[in-house]
Amino acid sequence: MNEKTNGAQARKPYIISMLVEDKFGVLQRISGVFSRRGFNMNTITVGRSEQQGVSRMTITTTGDKRMVEQIIKQLNKLVDVIKVIELEENECVTREIALAKVHVKDYAARNELTNFTNIFRGKIVDVGPNSMMIEITGTSDKIDGFIELLKPFGIKEFVRTGITALSK
Amino acid sequence: MKMSGAKAIVEALKREKAETIFGYPGGVIMPFYDALIGEEGVRHVLTRHEQGAVHAAEGYARASGKVGVCVSTSGPGATNLVTGIADAFMDSIPIVALSGQVVTSLIGNDAFQEADMFGITMPITKHNFKVVNAKDLVPSLKMAFTLAQLGRPGPVHVDLPKDIQTAEVEFDYPDKIVIPTYQPKIEPHPIQVKRAAELLGDAERPVIMAGGGVISSNASRELTKLAEMLMSPVVLTLMGKGAMDERHPLCLGMAGMHGRMSANYVLNNCDAMLAVGCRFDDRITGDLKHFAPEAKIIHIDIDSAEIGKNVGVELPIVADARKALTAIIDALAKVKKRKDSSEWQKRMKELMEACECDYGCNSTPIHPARVIWELNKLMPKNGIITTEVGQNQMWAMHFFKAHTPRHYISSGGLGTMGFGLPAAIGAKAACPDKPVLNVAGDGSLLMVCQEFTTSVEHDLPVTALVMNNNWLGMVKQWQKLFMKGRYSGTKLGKMPDFVKLIDAFGGKGERVERPSEIAEAIKHGLKSGVAYLIDVLIDPEADVLPMVPPGGRVDQMIPSDRCGKISRLVKR
Ligand SMILES: Cc1ncc(C[n+]2csc(CCOP(=O)(O)OP(=O)(O)O)c2C)c(N)n1
């Protein structure tokens, strides 16, 4: 492979954190960069930041180093984007929230589920005649692990927010 | 000062010294057109299609270096601008496109002639605005003109709902604004500059590749100076044509798919490449795996995202091209020990000589190279050439020796047929004292021939030099070379009589069938004072050669039958 071509490098997940002006169209501009240039976007979260009129956005993507550099440069060019950085896993705190509606067939199942939830420091947020809804917050790995545990019970529905992150 | 939104737009145009604008009216842009009445400072050129307006604005910008302005109504008028906006985006041309929009209370209701221009132009503009609050109008216009020019230039679109044009606004228009979230890096980093000078000084086989960025940053003089200091060959990209005088003994002309074999040779065999204001488009690099295998690449660009996008580079310099070249020139003067590049210089001279084939072909039907041969002799030094797209463009690119920046205008990145005639009209509006000639294909010209009316009506005389082969020649060539001659959809067949056509538009024209008639016809065109068309019947079987097959290696070009000498030389 010629070193000058954009050859295949190791693909891995990346976290991009950005501050953007809270103007209409800004989300469309950002997602447009991803779709137009063929970058994939795994998750995206947006919310207000500490500054008035400025939102903080966290995007996760999978790719090689060079692709992530391109993404960051292309995003930086957008006029409504104030700042873009890549967050290294060990230099930031990441969190995700999941809600899961789980089937409980009997009393024993209900007990066991409650135990698991406590161990994972989750919360039971709704209880129905034959289901329970659980809220859990944590890193994506933790949530992945928890979801695995829930599977045998029968997951009726679940949703996760995608990662939000802040540098330490 | 308080005034209507429409008046404020006109005032903004005057402040920005947009003395000519190109447009086409309609329902929701009428307040603006009304405000134009009696305005001396802004001349409105009514094109005969919105696509003509936007390409004319591009031609105006490319020829003058100023921002080009075009105007349309909403819906179909605005969507007709799209091709030209995309064209300006690909070639980094500063234009501001204004279009009307339905009243704000109707936006989103699928109102009559509503189109989501904000969404449509977003991926093909540097930035765009949808003005829904009257107080944002004037700041948005100032931002639009600023952004179009700042850093890497590009198109900006402003969507103007009708009620914003009739609302009362405060006209407070600062001369200069600072956009905190858009601050391109203009000055090169001194350490990078020093390293670049060392790397170039240490090269045995240096080459400089110049792109459109050299023209937009007015860096031609610095480019030539640096080349002379290094005694380095210079190759041009299509957008870089005009950045250096092609008659200069260090300039090898255009590289790439239809470039010159000598230019591709030095590009691929150099040990150090200074690429400035270009973006390593696939039409230049061919197969990336075999592109310039031994080169250490220094890449100067004002847009950091261009660096490393297509090829890996040894040394990035994010800066304005002129500032960077100036700094490298200064730094190079301090580099004491320079590698001997005399072998390379000798090689370059040989290549250049071998690449100067005799293209004054005297055969009938006319060989297209002969047409450009005549043009090279007859085009005055201040003459501006525009091209359409296809074979006509590539023959002109390959054979025409451009010399001055902004005098050679072509649709590069998008390759837009129908660009050349309106762009010529725009260039003429910007430079009324210069002769302007459009090298055209018969297919391309027919896409926009209504703009001859614009030329005649607004007294913007241009000459169209039509390479008439009765084919969509470039596509036919690909079918011939790569699809076993299975021609599909490329024969033009029954075409209008172009001489009668120009006559109907109120211009003049003539037909040329023999090589000996070309020169006279060009002379007539250049001094006609009215839209002129020269219908040159060329050999329909002529191909654009040499050629790098799509995805092929730049050092493996399909030669033309005039390439014998240079072919042998580059194989050595
Ligand atoms: C708007 C547009 N449509 C289609 C194409 C594809 N295309 C590229 S070159 C070409 C043929 C151009 O024919 P003509 O203008 O007659 O020029 P020639 O190649 O014969 O010189 C076509 C169809 C294009 N570049 N632009």
Task: Please explain how this structure is put together.
The complex is a heterodimer of chains A (about 170) and B (about 575). Chain A has about 170 residues and is α+β, with helices and mostly antiparallel strands. Chain A has helices spanning about 25-35, 65-75, 105-120, 140-150, and strands at about 10-20, 45-50, 55-65, 80-85, 90-105, 125-130, 130-140, 155-160, 165. In chain A, the strands form 2 sheets. In chain A, strands 5, 6, 7, 8 and 9 form a 5-stranded antiparallel beta sheet that branches. The two termini of chain A are about 40 Å apart. Residues about 1-5 of chain A have low confidence and may be disordered. Chain B is an alpha/beta fold. Chain B is built from 24 helices and 20 strands. In chain B, the strands form 4 sheets. Chain B has a 6-stranded parallel beta sheet, with helices on both faces. In chain B, strands 11-10-9-12-13-14 form a 6-stranded parallel beta sheet, sandwiched between helices. A 6-stranded parallel beta sheet of chain B has the order 16-15-17-18-20-19, sandwiched between helices. In chain B, helix 7 links the parallel strand 6 (about 125-130) and strand 7. In chain B, helix 15 runs antiparallel to helix 24 (about 565-570). Chain B starts with a strand and ends with a helix. The mean pLDDT of chain B is about 95. Classes of the chains: A alpha+beta (about 170), B alpha/beta (about 575). The interface of A and B includes residues 21, 29, 70, 74 and 80 of A. The structure holds thiamine diphosphate. Thiamine diphosphate binds near residues 388, 389, 390 and 443 of chain B.
So what's the CATH class of the largest domain in chain B?
Alpha Beta
Low-confidence stretches of chain A: 1-6
Query: DSSP strand (E) fraction of chain A?
Result: 35-45%
Say what oligomer this is. heterodimer
Order of helices and strands of chain A: EHEEHEEHEEHEE
Query: How many domains make up the 3D coordinates of chain B?
Result: 3
Strand order of the largest sheet of chain B: 3-2-4-5-7-6
- CATH fold group of the largest domain in chain B: Rossmann fold
Question: Class of the largest domain in chain A in CATH?
Answer: Alpha Beta
Radius of gyration of chain B: 24 Å
Mind summarizing the main beta sheet of chain A? Answer: 5 strands, antiparallel
Rg of chain A, Cα atoms, Å: 19 Å
